[in-house]
Design a protein that fits this description.
By secondary structure, the chain is α/β, with parallel strands linked by helices. It has helices spanning about 5, 20-25, 50-65, 100-110, 125-135, 135-145, 160-175, 200-205, 235-245, 255-260, 270, 290-305, 325, 330-350; strands at about 90-95, 120-125, 150-155, 180-185, 215, 250-255, 280-285, 310-315. The strands form 2 sheets. A 5-stranded parallel beta sheet has the order 2-3-4-1-5, sandwiched between helices. A 3-stranded parallel beta sheet has the order 6-7-8.
């Protein structure tokens, strides 16, 4: 049987995935990194009592979603009378900076909600807009309308058009009794101290504000809490050798991969990494422009979700984005990408033979 060295690494640049709409629906579950997370595996910072409080509140929220669907149980027929909109908040908004564990808590809420997986949906804002694009607005309402819970991670407040689209979708789902939970990034130009702004989120989703209870979660990025610094980049030779020695690894030149990402819709970046055990990149350098940088952010999110280590040569990951980018409206996205790529770089260190 051929070994890793005989087969050789794959190239992400050679992949052009096609993702059917059915897969988009079926994959609306917590990503692999969060398959096993639960409230009792969340590690609250003792110095941040809001983190422990969030666990208590969300546990109670999940328990309250048991029993019949708020619109009367099950999916409603198209000719059924519209269910009354619940008066009490049936949504929570997790307000906190990157790396405080919001996605862990959101996934824990999904797991703790007493309903079969087919009646719960979990996805990022981008994945939700991709679903609307694939199915159409009305079909998306029908598909999600009988759900007990919809969790939206990283609600994108920086795209007014998509925000209005999803706000309209959520309004329809609330009318059908679907409970909501969300986290978000910040608006462009909001240069806070690493926190997202509940007021911005609630204002942007307009009439839905009454359905959300803001839940603030303070703290520092847990990926840097007591962990060693990210390893320095390796040499091109070390990266290539590790790629050939690791079954299922990919090997790409970083500038070439950035060009390839421009030809693949971001909704397919997850599929782009199907079956990949490690991503090996040579010649990593500063990202040339903001459009490219935002695509790289999406790829970093998908790699992090899937726990795929990233081994690289070139510049360190904290040098990917220019000072102008890190001080601009999308700064929190870039810091999140740096944080996640740094964690994946630590995971990749054992791939290099010492």
């Amino acid at each position: 049987m051929a070994g890793p060295a005989d087969v050789g690494p794959q190239a992400l640049c050679a992949r052009e995935p096609r993702v059917p709409a059915e897969r988009l629906v079926a994959e609306m579950v917590p990503p692999p990194r969060f398959d096993s997370v639960r409230f009792d595996t969340y590690n609250p910072d003792p110095g941040q009592p809001s983190q422990s409080e969030a666990v208590t509140v969300l546990s109670g929220f999940a328990a309250g979603l048991g029993g019949a669907h708020a619109s009367g149980g099950g999916k409603r027929r198209w000719f059924a009378k519209k269910a009354p909109v619940p008066t009490a908040p049936r949504g929570v908004y997790l307000d906190g900076g990157y790396g405080v564990g919001k996605t862990h808590l959101l996934a824990s809420l999904w797991h703790a909600t007493p309903a079969e997986p087919a009646l719960k949906a979990f996805g990022t804002f981008v994945e939700l807009t991709n679903l609307v694009g694939a199915l159409g607005f009305q079909q998306t309402v029908q598909t999600l309308g009988g759900h007990r819970l919809l969790c939206i991670d990283e609600f994108e407040l920086d795209d007014p058009g998509d925000t209005v689209l999803v706000s309209s979708l959520l309004s329809r789902l609330v009318e059908q009794g679907v409970a909501l939970a969300a986290t978000s990034n910040t608006l462009p130009g909001k240069l806070g101290e690493g926190r997202f702004a509940a007021a911005d989120f609630l204002r942007e989703i307009q009439g839905l504000s009454a359905h959300f209870r803001p839940l603030r979660i303070d703290g520092q990025d847990y990926r840097h809490r007591g962990l060693p610094e990210a390893p320095a980049p390796f040499s091109d030779e070390q990266v290539a050798k590790a790629a050939y020695a690791t079954a299922g690894a990919s090997l790409d030149d970083f500038p070439g991969l950035l060009e390839h990402l421009a030809r693949v819709h971001p909704s397919r970046y997850g599929a782009l990494t199907d079956g990949i055990s490690a991503v090996c990149l040579t010649d990593v350098g500063p990202v040339p422009d903001q459009s490219t940088a935002l695509r790289l952010v999406v790829l970093a999110d998908r790699l992090y979700d899937r726990e795929i280590p990233v081994l690289a040569s070139g510049v360190p990951f904290d040098k990917l984005f220019s000072e102008e980018m890190l001080n601009g409206g999308y700064r929190k996205k870039y810091f999140r990408a740096i944080s996640r790529l740094t964690a994946l770089a630590r995971d990749a260190k054992p791939l290099v033979s010492q």
